[in-house]
């Protein structure tokens, strides 16, 4: 374990932690249902059969959680706003209270407006959902905009499309494979309309949180290179190109619904920052003609690529490889690919799942990734912030409560929060950065 101090980041660098509404709030009786409520009610969808009806009960215990943030000494807290809660009577009051509590603790609120919990009455296959999203965003911005400066529109439209609509391991559980592409387009359109709605309400610091990672070809053989290139297109370029360049990668625009050219003008509204959620690189080779189980996901045989284990590196409890230098590689690749079209970057999520309160592995993971981030800064990438996933152990989607990503341990019987060793490590690191 490295013990040298972490190098100093630029002045004003924003340190934070992230969570999302469905994963921590509970109080399901005080909101409308989301697609995740419907999905978890279906037997076999969530591994331990659990639901997020109570989760961390953050809805009732938010003051305790804000005190944990203050004790950690972070400058910012990224949480998400539940659209189904805003649709319920007094739902927005909760976020009003949370934002006030954060401001009083001198922690900047950074809300994400959509983190996968779509109202169950809506569907991303419908174009109209994008317009409905912008209406909801206006309502939220009018109410919180006097205290919220920094906004994130969507969390990981790539994963929501892939896991929720192409492979079906997340809500709403569809297995459309490439017929899921309109779901990506409609989310991107929703993002662009939301940027306009936020600016109309006076917001000046707006971004998105996209899931990205380097794709490593399994070999230098042509079939592996082609498969890896295609995977890189799906995970990285399909979402970054329209946002940053105003165009889809070659061959994709034709597959999208509606007046794509006109929509791209909305989608490419300039951003004030570009959020990146980084977990690991992916090793990809030619298809192997068989179903693959990987990182908690089943990939059908008909996909034109195969995801493979990266050898020779540690893995987390979830089986995800630990590759800090992948973060440096990702950021320098993005800088080279997008040049001056790339706004300042914020790492909006980075973290790992491990058991236990004496979590030395999490410390090693964070230490390695923060150093890798610093190397990207030294290489000239304009990075302005870093957020750890996650403050608390929480409802890890289809894995239920089995995976623990928190700096703070949750006892789901008693709802007692216990800071892990990594919480103390991060607190000390942040003190040394001031
Ligand atoms: C995020 O998704 C979500 O935003 C958040 O809600 C969630 O709790 C958190 O991450 C942890 O899962 O190829 O085996 O290395 C992350 C989506 C999909 C990222 C799979 C890493 C690669 C696994 N992830 N992925 S592997």
TrEMBL record:
Its EC number is 3.2.1.21. Pfam families: Glyco_hydro_1 (PF00232). It catalyses: Hydrolysis of terminal, non-reducing beta-D-glucosyl residues with release of beta-D-glucose. One of its GO terms (biological process) is cellulose catabolic process. PROSITE patterns: GLYCOSYL_HYDROL_F1_2 (PS00653). Keywords: Carbohydrate metabolism, Cellulose degradation, Glycosidase, Hydrolase, Polysaccharide degradation. It is an enzyme of class 3 (hydrolase). The keyword Hydrolase applies. The active site is at residues 156, 349. It comes from the Bacteria. Gene3D superfamilies: Glycosidases. One of its GO terms (cellular component) is cytosol. One of its GO terms (molecular function) is beta-glucosidase activity. Substrate binds at residues 23, 115, 155, 279, 389, 396-397. Belongs to the glycosyl hydrolase 1 family. This is Beta-glucosidase. It comes from Streptomyces regalis.
